[in-house]
Structure formats: C-alpha cells, structure tokens
Amino acid sequence: MQRFPLAEDIYWIGAIDWDMRNFHGFETPRGATYNSYLIIDEKTAVIDTVREGFGPEMLRRLSGCCSVAEVDYLVVNHVEMDHSGSVPWFMEQLAPVTLVTSKRGRDALVEHYGEGVVDGWDIEVVGTGGELALGRYTLTFLEVPMVHWPDSMFTYVKEPKVLLPNDGFGQHLASAKRFADELDMNVVMEEALRYYANILMPLGNQIQKTLHKVMELGLEIDVIGPSHGVIWRRPEDIARIIEAYSAWSSFQALPKVALIYDTMWHSTEKMTKAIADGIAQEGLDCRVLNISETPRADLASAVQECAAVLIGSSTQHNQMLAPVGGFLTYLKGLRPKDRIMGAYGSYGWSGGAVKQLVAAFEELKLEVAGSLEVKYVPTEEDLAACEELGREVARKVKEKLGA
Ligand code: FEO
Questions:
Q1: Model-level pTM?
Q2: Shared-domain flag, residues 33 and 152
Q3: Domain count of the fold of the chain
Q4: 167 catalytic, yes or no?
Q5: How do residues 338-395 score in pLDDT, each as one tens digit?
Q6: Which of 59, 73, 234, 274 could covalently link to 45 via disulfide, CB atoms 3.0 to 4.6 Å apart?
Q7: Ordered DSSP codes for 264-290
C-alpha cells in the first residue's frame, strides 16, 4: 500500500470515501476523506481515527508503515463520528494504548460510547499548552472550542512544524492524491469554500479567535494536515488557505450579488433576470441560483462569497415557497453577518413571502437594501423597478467595498 509522508516518519493513514454525496445534510459532489496521521518515534502516536466502517482501511495503511503493536498513543482531537466513529474499534485493535484527549473530549466520548466503555480505556487528559514527548518529536495541544464542536483540539508537532487542526482548513474532496499542490487549486479552493460555508460559517468568531491564538503562540507551520481532504504543504498554499480563513471568518466578501430564488409560474424568475440586468448595468457580477435546481451547499457558498444576497419567492398559500422556506431555515443556522439583503417575488392576491423574508433578515440583524412585490405577472414598469432594485443593491455593494 502506498505511503504518504508529510514529514520524516509522519504519514497520512486515513480513508477515502469516494461515494459520499451528502455529509450530514449538505451535498458533497466530490466525495470525502477522513484523515488520520501516524507519527513513528520512540513512542508512536496515531492522530484521530475515521468514520465507523472505514477502520479496516485505516488499519491497513497503518500496518503498511509500522506494526500495530508499536502504537503507544491514540490522540482524539474531536469526537464527531466522522473522526471518532472508529475509536472503540481501534482501542481494541491497538490495545494496550493510551488515548489522549481534552477534558471536553473525554466527556464527549462518555456521551457517545457510555461511561462503562470509556472507563475501561487508559485516558490521558491534556489541555492547551499540554505536551506529549514522543522522542525526537513533541506534540503540543491547543483546545479550540467550536472549531468545530466544543471538544475540538489541534495537535501541533513542533520539530517538523506540522499542524494537525482536525476540522480546520479541510475540504470534502476524495482523491488518490494527498496534497493540495497535486490537484487543480481552483477545485481545492472551491471545495474549501463549500466546506467552510456549510460547516464553519456560524463559527466565524471562534475561527478568528483561533487564528489569533495561533499567531500569538508564534506557531511556525510547514505543513497543515486537516482531517478532511488534501494536505497543505507549499508555503504559498498555506498562506492562501490561512488568508482565506481570515477573510471568510470576518465575513469579507467579493463585490458580487447572489440572486437565490424559486418561482411558480416564471414571474419571480422574470423579476430575477431583470434584477440581474440592473446589477450588470452597475458593472457588478452576480450569481443566479434557482433553489430547486441548486444543491443547498452551493447556495451557502454563494452567501459566503457575495457581498449582497437577494432572495426571491412567489407566494403560495400565503407563505414563501417551501424550497425557499427550507433554505431560509438553513440560512438562519449559518448566521451570516455583514451581508446586504433584499427580497422580491410575485403573488396572486394577498402576498406574504416577501414580508416573511424581510422579517427573517431583520431577525438575523442583516441590512435590508430593498424589497419588491409584483402582482401576478410583472409589467414593463415592474421589470423597470426590478432593474432599479438591482442597480440600487449594486451601488450599495460598491460603496461598501469601495469597488
Ligand atoms: Fe469532521 Fe466536526 O467533524
């Protein structure tokens, strides 16, 4: 089995989930990987495991690098099941082995597997700044609550300057290649954005704090080995993903407008096209995404990427269309900040969708740049008003971003 070294005696030993197309509710068109790492030293450590069912694949990779009996430590950075699902199985395969995790990690293991099981494991609890000397290499731990769950922790291998940040800096991207520089970087960054938008968007403040903490500690980083997707090793790629996280977590955006809509009899679609025309008249680009035709994960990427987001919906039974309502529920969970919002749509007699959208934006404390309702089918005057809404939103974006 091919070995994938990140540094001397440090190997990727994860598993590739080629078929994964929906990761707890969002689409993953390029599959996924669950990354584990092996550090061979006087004491040998495995960092994280894989989703349940992928343990044998990981074990084969591990066995291709060293004897299973040589493993002394299993570090659990995060207890979500895509990483910890195989922990009970590996505790049997690697026994005797010491499980190393944070206090919150231990608590989460108990909550997942039960006190009776976890009590039978030899566990060493570590906290921020805690170290584990392996021989030539020393592991340093950094608790990073809510990147992605309360128990999340980074492991840093000092001497080769390898950061293993678990859910941080990942992508859902199955590939036979292990390093970002071996793939089309546009694809890697597209997947990094999709991953960030759908998993980490609501956690921007915690990501910012973590980035500051890493800077304060002065960690030098030659390799970032996330727990999903490809590994970052070229200095320019490491700088690029850290800069991207800095921008995404502070809700910086491109001077673009996302028009996210659904339509019943094409009237809201006509409004969308007229608004897009108005945006173009002001020299800005936009993304037009029909909710019923677009994976929800891509809608989230557009919200992360674009400075303004306009949502359009016809009214049905006095409500917004059900696919729009579903997306709005998802959007509320993502808690976007600092976006210019707008709502529009057609109705037959009483309306309702546009008011509901505006109320939802206000609840999210987002600036509402405008709203527009049209009865039945938009007239030429209505389409002219839609164009003006597009121009107005584009002007606000340019003013805000100095574009
Ligand atoms: Fe990749 Fe929060 O698990």
A1: 0.97
A2: yes
A3: 2
A4: yes
A5: 999 999 999 999 899 999 999 999 999 999 999 999 999 999 999 999 999 999 999 9
A6: 73
A7: SSSHHHHHHHHHHHHHHHTT-EEEEEE
Closest-CA residue, ligand 1 atom 3, reads: 80
278 Cα to the center of ligand 1, angstroms: 41
Q: Is 149 in the pocket of ligand 1 (CB under 6 A)?
A: yes
271 and 214, same domain (yes or no):
no
Query: If pLDDT is split at 50, 70 and 90, which confidence band does 1 have?
Result: confident
Residue of 71, 153, 146, 69 lying closest to 106 (CA atoms): 153
Percent helix, strand and coil across the chain, each to the nearest 5: 40, 25, 35
Confirm whether 80 is a catalytic residue.
yes
Number of H helices and E strands in the chain, helices first, is: 13, 23
> Is residue 49 located within the same domain as residue 192?
yes
Q: Measuring CA to CA, how many Å separate 355 from each of 311, 314, 364?
A: 12, 12, 14
Instruction: Determine the atom of ligand 1 nearest the C-alpha atom of 167.
Output: 1
How far apart CA 286 and CA 254 sit, in angstroms, is 10
User: What is the C-alpha to C-alpha distance for residues 109 and 90, in angstroms, rounded to an integer?
Assistant: 14
Active site includes 317? Answer: no
Distance 230 CA to ligand 1 centre (A): 15
pLDDT tens digits for range 308-340: 999 999 999 999 999 999 999 999 999 999 999
CB 387 near ligand 1, within 6 Å: no
